[in-house]
Amino acid sequence: VKKGIIRNRRYRNRRIGDFLKELNITEGRGTGIPTIRMAMEKNGSPEPLFETDDDYSFFMTTLSIHPAFLSGDGVSNGIKVAENQSEKVQNLIRDGVDDGVNDGVNDTVNILLNVSGLNASEIALRIKKVFQQ
């Protein structure tokens, strides 16, 4: 990863990856890490930390907070979030953590596919419309 050479050795969540591609959230060509590095460098943020083990059984990314945000120079003072939006975000994060992200997403995908009668592309299209509202 440090050399900029990225190879995908095996997929863990192919369905999730397909959904994210359908929603144009990911692109599936292995350019994510260089893109993250360039964006963070351009922003003046600390370099991201990428970690894995010798067997590539996990991949973890740590994105550090920009130093200006922590300095108290007013960078964060002008950011206002509506009370109901803040609660929604907190609930979504809490739900994702409580469910166990991979298990919860896989269960949801299976329910949508089996109960709704829609295929993966149709479900992805409907989810995309919700995010665009």
Describe this structure in words.
The chain is mainly alpha-helical and 133 residues long. It has 2 domains: 56 residues, no CATH class; 47 residues. Helices cover 53% and strands 6% of the residues. The protein has 6 helices and 2 strands; from the N terminus they run ααββαααα. The chain has a two-stranded antiparallel ribbon. The relative contact order is 0.13. Pfam families: HATPase_c_4 (PF13749). InterPro entries: RecG_C_sf.
Number of domains: 2
| Outline | globular
Number of strands: 2
Q: Order of strands across the biggest sheet?
A: 1-2
Strand content: 5-15%
| Rg result | 18 Å
The amount of helix comes to 40-55%
Task: Give the N-to-C terminal Cα separation.
Answer: 36 Å
Number of helices: 6
Uncertain stretches: none
Question: Topology as H/E string?
Answer: HHEEHHHH
The average pLDDT score comes to 70
Largest sheet: 2 strands, antiparallel
User: What structural category do the secondary elements indicate?
Assistant: mainly alpha
Topology:
Layout: H1 14-22, H2 32-43, E1 49-52, E2 59-62, H3 67-70, H4 83-99, H5 101-116, H6 120-132
Antiparallel strand pairs: 1-2
InterPro entries: RecG_C_sf (IPR038475)
Keyphrases for this structure?
133 residues, mainly alpha, 2 domains, two-stranded antiparallel ribbon, 6 helices, 53% helix
In short:
The chain has 133 residues and is mostly helical. The protein has helices at 14-22, 32-43, 67-70, 83-99, 101-116, 120-132; strands spanning 49-52, 59-62. The chain folds into 2 domains: 14-69, no CATH class; 85-131.
